[in-house]
Amino acid sequence: MELVRTEAENGLISLSQDAPLEGPSWLKDLQDKARAEFQALGLPNRRVEEWKYTDLKAAMKVAFQPVDQGDITQAQINELLGSDLAELSTQPLVFVDGQLNEGLSDLSVGEGVEILSLKAALADDVSWVKPIGTVQQKERDAVQALNLVLMQGGAAIKIAERQDVSKPIHLIFVSTASSESSVASRLFFDIGAGANVEIIESHLSLQNQASQTNLVTEVLVGDWAKVRHVKFNNDHVESVHLSNVIGKLGKESDYGLFQATLDGGLTRNQVEIRYDGDEAKADISGVALLSGKSHADMTLVMDHAALACESRELFKTVLDDEGRAVFQGKVVVQPGAQKTDGEMMSKALLLSESAEFDSKPELEIYADDVLCGHGATTGQIDDELLFYLKARGIADAEARALLIQAFVGEALELIENDTLRDYVIDQTLAWYEKA
Known about the structure:
Layout: H1 7-16, H2 25-41, H3 56-59, H4 74-81, H5 83-86, E1 91-96, E2 99-100, E3 113-117, H6 118-123, H7 142-150, E4 153-159, E5 169-175, E6 181-191, E7 196-205, E8 211-221, E9 226-233, E10 240-249, E11 254-262, E12 266-275, E13 281-290, E14 295-304, E15 310-319, E16 324-333, E17 341-350, E18 356-365, E19 371-379, H8 383-390, H9 396-412, H10 418-434
Parallel strand pairs: 1-5, 4-6, 5-7, 6-8, 7-9, 8-10, 9-11, 10-12, 11-13, 12-14, 13-15, 14-16, 15-17, 16-18, 17-19
Antiparallel strand pairs: 1-2, 3-4
């Protein structure tokens, strides 16, 4: 049956005819395949099982045009970050409208660290970036395919073996567009065996404009390496923010990802982690605070393909007004992946009768000596606890904020960096006061 394309799909196909980034032949082959894949699939919709609760085809009416890199000053970036993040000692990499801005970034790499703009890495056909587009690239994923064709910038970062990176690498994505715009970026991390690095990811907007973001992050974590990755975004109410983190873990490696989503339009954070080495660990956690008509979708796949690996997932969601959230978590234990230890938990707190939370935890197990479990809860603020606080002279709004804070606190405590944790707590407190 012939696919009936929407205006947005036709616009995206038109944009994809010429890839913004030119690269070597191996990339062109991947992009040609991705272009054909998107043309065959179109935007994902409710008929696609993984997108049953987030109908991107219905939500995305038109395809916004990509914009050229705009102007922004360091002072404006600091103001957007806020004092806590601006003063945090990091190595900032600033992406303005999808392009790495070398003037605003700190590229003074230390020993054992190599940072390249994606454009330069592909133009020079740097050998270590050749896994781009192949790190567990999901078959028949229209969003990932579209990113591979439309990516207009990004960065490739290589950490040498046993390198302990002293400062967190802060990826600051800033949109400067004064009208509707789209950005497609890709990040590639090659983290050597025994290395230790912290990554912070911020998404900011200079103008209060609708936008469409498609970001893919590929992470290769070497044996015994440790990575801590914290991402937060607070987009415009008419934004579409599509993020894919695709990771592959080596032996006894340790990867932690925390994602914080505050309001925005439609957000989908998709995570795919594959365990390739024995005794690797991953902790994928986050919070989402949604009001108005915000929609956030957390979809993850933990693919255990090695012995004695551990996965932990904890997500806390607070919904007000007509906010809607989706949690889809799948733990797959491949044949032979004995001694797998996997736990997955998703909890939602509804502050409004119009709010909606859909949860779909899944276990797919092909080994017989494993310890795996999952859980999901949905509820409202406990009236008895609220009465207890109010009976002690605490105002209603403050009492509710305290209970919400206690609810999400369990997840926030998983952020290891004290400054980052305080920053996210402050952001959530501001949300409580507004809600």
